[in-house]
Give the backbone structure.
Amino acid sequence: MASFKTIVRSFSSSQVSQQLVKTPVQVFGIDGRYATALYSAATKLKQLDGVEKELLSFQAALKSDMKFRDFVLDPTIQKTLKIEALRGIGQKKNFCAASINLLALLAENGKIKNIDGVLANFSILMAAHRGDLPVEVVTARPLSQEDKSELQSTLKLFAKKGENILLTTKVDPALIGGMVVSIGDKYVDMSVASKIQKYTNLLQAPA
């Protein structure tokens, strides 16, 4: 597995210092490492907004074109062929250097399947960079407008001065009740399903 320093170097150019830029929030895991390195490189190259726009368009193409998605995610295709193809696509669409390097590096390291997770983490970093606080709330049943307004007011207590709450809601009946809340890089599971699982584990534990 590539080290974090290797990832950072892969995004950088000879003209750009390889010292990591401090991110506005922390993101974790393999996807977070790539997203952090991308944010650092794009910041130094002054390509942050361009990189975000380009990679979102790439992600949209993956979702709308199944043949393209199958090619990109197929693990049996030779890495060199996939790297060459992704670089070619990036150059044809006039992508920034950091965007092209991300796609090539993910393909080279066999992590192109992580593209959605990397972009999700990069979006968290960009939202924080803009002073936005992305919040995702998953509930077992759709929230009423009154519930959303109350939730929005409550969530403002978690926001720092100048931050804007960007609320998205999803429905997952498997939660049974309660909610799962993701605030920036923080995650809180307050669902009934998680409580039932916790109690089940306790009851099944050896006496």
